[in-house]
Amino acid sequence: MRAIATLLLLMAASAAAPARQAPPQPGPQAPPDVAVVKFNWRKERIPGWEKNDFGASVESYDAMRERLDNERRIQQARNAGNKTEVGRRESAAKMAEDARYSKAPANAERPRDGYRYKVRVRNDGAKTIKLVDWDYVFLDPETREEVGRQLFTSEEKVKPGGEKDLDVFVLSPPVRTVSAQGKQKDAPAFVEQVVLTRVVYSDGSVWQKP
Fold first, then answer.
1. 64 in a domain, yes or no?
2. What is the total count of domains within the chain?
């Protein structure tokens, strides 16, 4: 009887205990053989702007919309790896810009606002890299919410064991708006990250961020 009672108690305790689940396995966030060494961005040649890293140039709404549409079309062609289409769209954008400013007053200055984004990557693998898709991401330092993202494609050959600076110059600022509400005086405006989303190797193999 004592053995039966002990067996019943053990069965009851087992039934009452919650089932343990295996912890989820984190998915790969970066290619195992490519390392981000460092990254930065800067604003270049912006005469007439206020001393604010995230200011905006003075332009009409229609001009701004046309410029952003042209930038988006050019970036889409870059992402597709179509150099011929990139050249065609860049030429069309320049012609539109020249036409717009040819109608401006003689003393009007062409805006020269631009941003250069850079990341250095290191190839720790055995295969040569020929193309990298990478995103420059800006997060709110308090909420960690994403407030800006720039998407780039760089066709650069990186040999095994080598490093390469990927450098892109665009007209788009890191973020469109900046709120200083609730920020401490010396607090950083953003937390910056670089995320590798796709790596194409010279042998035709591809790593894609899940």
1. yes
2. 2
